[in-house]
Specification:
Blueprint lengths: L7 E3 L2 E3 L3 E3 L15 H12 L4 E8 L19 H13 L3 E7 L14 E2 L13 E2 L2 H20 L4 E6 L4 H6 L14 H4 L1 H13 L6 E6 L10 H13 L4 E5 L16 H12 L2 E4 L5 H9 L5 E4 L1 H5 L3 H9 L10 H4 L7
Parallel strand pairs: 3-4, 3-12, 4-5, 5-8, 6-7, 8-9, 9-10, 10-11, 11-12
Antiparallel strand pairs: 1-2
The structure holds flavin mononucleotide (FMN).
């Protein structure tokens, strides 16, 4: 019996194993955020590899919310066709399909620099554009953009939406006092810094089916004096759980330039603390590549999902090999059964 290969049900969505493809920008969209063959093959290969949950990369909810002009987009109905093809193929292979809804805020590098917005005119560092402080109207527009993006994600057939609240992008930049210097109802106190996130969750919930989960990706620590630390994150996540987030996808950093001594599994303790103290399912990621480590994390209930990023870029069929190593019999795509059973080639 393998914990890593046990199914889990969140709301009405059953995921066949605990392996998540971490959202990873490919910077390969066609103009206007459209899916290309690269995306179809890239995500399709991991579905063939039997990843339980595939989270599509940060996808812009509005053009000014892209990290780059090569980001995928979900701000226009024209973008749905390509996304739906990816979802349909993933479903055929048995993967649950999610999409990360993102707004880059002050970390956007689109060519229209005047469109770059943030909570306060504080750049990420001196190589980045100084963002324009958002007006209340712009805040409302962004909230609406997340909601229409979620509605489109449902139309495309996605099972899960993940709100990108990590890595210094717009939502995170409102949460952290290092980037949010506002004095209105969106700044200063913790309650106010959480307001944008709360309003986005509420708006998404109004359009997203009640039987489908909403994940939130967060940076559990800014690792910088005056920023968010794990203790504050835990307090914030208690609210977020009440507002209807089903799973917290735990990452770190990205708000200010930092150096972290990263080793395999170095973020598990953050996901574990949040899971225990908030009582909510979590995803952990961070240099995980050994099946035994992934199995240990799930077996000991330290997180509910293990997300793999770079390892899945190296090895799209990681789950098939991990199952073999752990002595678990997983279904392969029927086209590849000769390889699974090491049968001789014959017509
Ligand atoms: C090429 C690449 C692109 C990434 N893009 C995103 C992204 O779109 N959204 C996000 O939340 N994290 C992104 N990340 C971070 C990953 O989701 C993951 O948290 C990180 O790579 C650590 O996991 P790993 O050590 O298994 O790669 C990206 C990472 C890589 C390597």
């Amino acid at each position: 019996m393998s914990a890593l290969f046990s199914a889990i049900k969140i709301k009405e969505i059953t995921i066949s194993n605990r392996i998540v493809m971490a959202p990873m920008c490919q910077y390969t969209a066609a103009s206007d955020g459209l899916v290309t063959d690269w995306h179809r093959i890239h995500y399709g290969a991991r579905a063939v590899g039997k990843v339980g949950l595939i989270l599509l990369e940060a996808t812009g909810v509005e053009p000014r919310g892209r990290i780059s002009e090569k980001d995928l987009g979900i701000w226009d109905d024209n973008q749905l066709h390509g996304l739906k093809q990816i979802v349909d193929f993933g479903h055929e292979q048995g993967s649950v399909m999610g999409i990360q809804l993102a707004h880059a805020g002050r970390k956007s590098d689109v060519s229209d620099k005047a469109s770059i917005i943030g909570p306060s005119p504080v750049p990420y560092d001196n190589t980045y554009t100084i963002p324009r402080e958002m007006t209340k109207r712009e805040i409302d527009e962004v909230i609406q953009s997340f909601a229409t993006a979620a509605k489109r994600a449902d139309e495309a057939g996605f099972d899960i939406v993940e709100l990108h609240g990590a890595h210094g992008y717009l939502i995170h930049s409102f949460l952290s006092p290092l980037s949010n210097h506002r004095t209105d109802e969106y700044g200063e106190t913790r309650e106010n810094r959480l307001r944008l996130l709360k309003e986005i969750i509420e708006a998404v919930r109004r359009v997203w089916p009640v039987n489908k989960p909403i994940f939130l990706r967060i940076s559990a620590s800014d690792f910088t004096e005056g920023g968010i630390d794990l203790e504050e994150t835990i307090e914030m996540m208690k609210y977020v759980k009440e507002w209807g987030i089903d799973v917290i996808d735990v990452s770190i950093g990205g708000l200010v330039p930092i150096n972290v001594d990263a080793r395999p599994g170095y973020l598990v303790k953050f996901a574990e603390q949040i899971k225990q103290q908030v009582g909510i399912p979590t995803v952990t990621a961070g240099l995980i590549s050994e099946p035994e480590m992934a199995e240990e994390i799930i077996h000991n209930d330290r997180a509910d999902f293990v997300a793999l990023g770079r390892e899945l870029l190296r090895n799209p069929q990681w789950p098939l090999h991990a199952a073999e190593r752990l002595g678990y019999d997983i279904d392969w795509a029927k086209q590849y059964l000769r390889a699974k059973h090491k049968l001789p080639y014959s017509r």
